[in-house]
Write a structure and sequence with these properties.
189 residues, 5-stranded antiparallel beta sheet, 8 strands, 19% strand
């Protein structure tokens, strides 16, 4: 499958190859996957602390993740379409734990790998929380211009405060989850 990411009117879009009508699936899960493959869909990055009970439910049916939202799940962080850029900025901040905060590349896949649903263990959440906590409050401002150049100028020069706020929310989320000995779910909705 060909995957291309681009910004259009401020929305991060993913453009994928087309699928034939006969490959449309009956279930809502397969339909969602098919829609993602057939048209441009804004990608929203979300993170959610995981209690053992919530993890057990997700292991039974990983697609439940796509039904989670801020209203139904206290503590869920919706980075919106800015998650991609925040992760890009954090690439310049150093350690693997910091770079792993948004997308959970080192996390375990739940469901099919193409669904982008990943889980960090409580131990990894504590490592990430510690790495984020020691970063100075001006981390985004320090690395913003480097990230902007690396992303071919795609970052708005005036948006430093927006990404600084998102960084602070991300840090608070990991610290709270680490304190409660919880894992972390990361996924794209």
């Amino acid at each position: 499958m060909l995957l291309v990411a681009a910004r259009l009117d401020g929305e991060l879009l993913v453009l994928c190859t087309l699928v034939h009508p006969e490959s449309l699936a009956r279930s809502r899960v397969d339909l969602r996957r098919t829609l993602r493959k057939t048209r441009a869909v804004p990608i929203r990055y979300r993170l959610c602390p995981l209690s053992p009970k919530r993890l057990a439910l997700l292991e039974e049916d990983p697609e439940i993740a796509f039904e989670l939202d801020e209203e139904s799940v206290p503590g869920l962080l919706d980075l919106g379409t800015d998650g991609f850029e925040l992760a890009g900025i954090l690439l310049f901040a150093g350690k693997d734990a910091i770079r792993d905060a948004v997308f959970a590349q080192s996390g375990r896949n739940l469901g099919e790998e193409s669904d982008g649903i990943r889980v960090h263990t409580p131990k990894r959440v504590k490592e990430i929380a510690k790495a984020l906590t020691v970063l100075p409050d001006d981390t985004v401002a320090r690395h913003y211009e480097s990230a902007r150049r690396a992303m071919a100028g795609k970052l708005d020069p005036s948006a430093v405060s927006k990404y600084s706020d998102l960084f602070e929310q991300l840090r608070e989320l990991y610290v709270a989850a680490a304190t409660e000995d919880q894992g972390m779910l990361t996924y794209m909705a």
